[in-house]
């Protein structure tokens, strides 16, 4: 499926396009498409007043683009909470179906959902649910692979990608758990973790997609 206008707005928002210019290369990588298609779509979004676009520099969201992006991200993350809490969805299933629902959820439904769920602050994968003004607090996080062996931290967020989510859920990774690396095998081999007192193993590659509280170094 080719990404549509709304996917672009969401991507620019997630890449920081509320405050700063996001370059085309970042957008192309995030959406996994050719840079030429990005340039074409950005022109369209600019004509519709959804972004400010400076060729060779990048783009950021206009007020209108911002409010569209925020309502998509809010809808997506609230649906994920609903699907997991009330319909027994798995990590990856929730992400997949929220991807569809976000595009057809009117703002009235989003705010009823928010109220029904008692205003959750995070989606099940640990991403912050923006308020209707779009503000998100960025806590300083680092990836798990950078945690020194023996140091304790907490798991806060994982990258939302289907295969990865299935792998991590299967391995027993949960948001909020305390985590300590017990052993790191040589040459980026698997990591043995102490997760809330349980022994769990994850690949080094997966550890690069698990975000934890930044530790003092
Ligand atoms: Zn999520």
From TrEMBL:
Ranges for domain HTH dtxR-type: 1-62
Location in or out of the cell: Cytoplasm
GO molecular function per UniProt: DNA binding; DNA-binding transcription factor activity; protein dimerization activity; transition metal ion binding
Pfam families referenced in this protein's UniProt entry, alphabetically: Fe_dep_repr_C, Fe_dep_repress, FeoA
Alphabetical list of InterPro entries matching this protein: DtxR_MntR_Metal-Reg, Fe-transptr_FeoA-like, Fe_dep_repressor, Fe_dep_repressor_sf, FeoA_core_dom, HTH_DTXR, Iron_dep_repressor, Transcriptional_repressor_C
SMART domains: FeoA (SM00899), HTH_DTXR (SM00529)
Keywords (A to Z) from UniProt: Activator, Cytoplasm, DNA-binding, Iron, Manganese, Repressor, Transcription, Transcription regulation
GO CC field: cytoplasm
Record PROSITE patterns: HTH_DTXR
Top-rank taxon: Bacteria
Self-association and partners: Homodimer.
Record-stated family: Belongs to the DtxR/MntR family.
Protein name: Manganese transport regulator
Organism: Kineothrix alysoides
Organism ancestry: Bacteria, Bacillati, Bacillota, Clostridia, Lachnospirales
